[in-house]
User: Which sequence fits this backbone?
């Protein structure tokens, strides 16, 4: 069973490390712009970094959830690749947002699209598993034998 | 094993789609009330929608965690039903909060109660599994044979 | 399989209960300092409690993610112990932050260190599983036979 999960585990771990990196950036920014907790407002440079990290944190659980739903019910390989692309997009988003509010847009759209792909894979996987479990029909196999 | 998880997978997916819907509402509200990121304050109409989404996002990981703990250790069926009720409550919460701060209260209490039910199921499930694994006692079965 | 997971399930449940406790503290603080939603700013006493809860919520998904990655791929026992230490650290963090911004620091560093230990275990576990699954080498066993 582990062989069906270890790729997802590796992407998950990378995702956690990325979040740790973002959190450290906020701590550095707090020092640089002298914004002590609990304050969360300050110069726009600080607020952009703070918001970038907050946004990534907010999406992290959604990402982990669809990564695993898609990986368990559909395909570990495809989900892991999408996972890596998502993390790459989020890295660019964070860097872009740190520089300007405009710079966050392109990578934000990119990572949102990847999330939608993972949601699509999850839906397909859950639907096919439902058919297998409750209707005893393996739609994917039926389709393959119908085509070839 | 998949047949014990696919219901949880379906509810999880629905939860992700609901969060996506809430996020889109915040984007629309940002446009409507001209509140550009990284700003998060604005007219009360905007702030209510923003806080509603933030609150749902904050509870999303808790919800997914208890849904699966309850589903894996206690009962997939009961947990999935509670999951659907929770998502329904959150939808009403978001709609209510968008209209008035008062309007969020009833569905907030409702979804909190459902969370407590899921926490109760999880506790029961973890406790019974502990007894099975470490004491080699199947309490649920003992109880049934004692009663009938 | 359940016996490899029930410890993680128990720590997870404790984590959820701790989050519920923090949320209740924010609700009490809102009443005490008369800060009605959607407002999130108020007297420093309120803001510290609000930020403490927000910070714990933000780290909760990261914690659950590394707890399970470490527990599934490395060791349930060690991960569960680290999980309990983390929750203990977070409890002290919340209490400390409620009293003063300074009071949050020591337990914050402690819980961050525990997170890094869990990240280390996860990395080791994912790496060893990769070797087992794709290279067919059980490094842990090789190491043991080389040593003894």
Assistant:
């Amino acid at each position: 069973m582990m062989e069906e999960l270890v790729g997802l585990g590796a992407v998950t771990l990378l995702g956690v490390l990325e979040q740790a990196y973002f959190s450290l950036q906020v701590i550095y920014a707090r020092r640089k712009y002298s914004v002590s907790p609990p304050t969360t407002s300050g110069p726009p440079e600080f607020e952009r970094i703070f918001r970038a990290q907050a946004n990534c944190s907010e999406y992290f659980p959604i990402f982990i959830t669809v990564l695993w739903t898609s990986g368990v019910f559909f395909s570990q390989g495809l989900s892991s690749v999408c996972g890596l692309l998502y993390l790459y997009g989020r890295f660019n988003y964070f860097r872009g947002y740190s520089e300007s509010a405009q710079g966050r847009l392109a990578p934000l759209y990119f990572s949102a699209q990847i999330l939608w792909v993972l949601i699509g894979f999850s839906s397909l996987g859950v639907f096919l598993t439902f058919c297998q479990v409750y209707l005893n029909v393996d739609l994917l196999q039926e389709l393959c034998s119908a085509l070839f």
